[in-house]
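Notes from the pairing session

We agreed to fold both candidates in a single pass and log them together. This is the raw record for the first candidate, unedited. Please don't reformat it; downstream parsing expects exactly this layout.

Candidate A
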Amino acid sequence: MPKKIRTCFDEKNTFENLLHAHYRARKHKFSKDEVIKFEMNLEYNLINLKRSIENNTYKVGKYREFKIYEPKERIIKSLPYVDRIVHQWYVEEFVKPYIVPRFIFTSFACIEDKGTHKSADCVQKYMRTFLRNHGDFWVLKCDIRKFFYNINPNILLNIMKKYIKDKKLMEFTRLLIFGSRDDDDSIGIPIGNYTSQYFANIYLNELDQYVKRSLKLKYYVRYMDDFVILLKTKKDCIYYKKVISDFLKSNLQLELNSKSRYYPYKMGVDFCGYRIYTTHKLLRNSSKRKIMKKVKKWNSQYHDGTFDPSFCNKSLQSWYGHVSHCNSYHLTKKIINKCDFLINDSFYEKSENNIIHDIEENKKM
């Protein structure tokens, strides 16, 4: 693999590549008005997009802002559909094949065949290995304060220059990073862009490389802006927390969150939705409270006649898929036992599988 991306921008800008980017961008959104409108004249729109990229006339559209409140309040910025096609094309053609392979093995966010479950599994594997090889140990658990809002786009651009030699691609990268900003000195990248997930990972890859290559810490796992390091002593935790904090401030203009702390491993590691121990994994308490709240809402809807069995089934299956990766048998039975709504034939017809039926059978035993 070449050290830098060279002279491939034009050859990657093809109708076929943009068409595949469109198919990826419309996934789960094919019924949206803007997607339907774009597809009504698909060939013409893609050819125009291709030409605008070739002629350097492509401009990033205006953002639409809205708020989400789970797991906490965040401002999400959404671009017009054509920009989402461009983001898919950029990530698939340049970031994934050339930059992602340079990430460390224990970086798990936004990478194919990785994710939260494998991240949690890796932490548990490291905990068991550390305990077997070195005995009792300490956990340094950190996250970064308002990560996306504090990414410096100028620093990000300089990091991208390490990977990109192609001048056209570099100018296009500058355009995507700075987007439709009124002020080039403003800080942060928008949550919601497909490119933002990868730019954020590339930004913190600087920390990953520092921890692994300079500090030579073996037991390090990162999922986006949360990371865990296993160390022998409390003194090591205090030292490395200070060293990492200094590196983040001086090189990336980031700060550790006040929740960053260190503690003995026997307390378990709160990471990626689980409380992880050397012997088992449990569901995070906040997740338990959330599903209890949902069940209470569904029970209320069931009794007042507004219950939607199809939606409930999908939601329960999503939750079950998450808890099935930890020790959750008794918790699952407890949740289902609290459900007042009945499992009937119409429910089964709308169900994708019989997870709820299996658990309901346990309820009868």
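Candidate B (folded immediately after A)
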Amino acid sequence: MPQEALSDIQRRIIELEVEHRDLDAVIDTLSADPGVEVFWLSRLKKRKLHLKDQILLLKMRLIPDIPA
């Protein structure tokens, strides 16, 4: 894989990790509020899980294939 593509993947991973951390902070804050709507909290948690999956997939792309 070309170095430029690797840099793009690494940059995207960092962006997703920042968004994941931000969502985590928002979820923690909203969870402390008893008046928060459960539907929106659930949507944020699903988005956070989706980001985690995307990060994992991109990290897997960085691991070179090992010939059998």
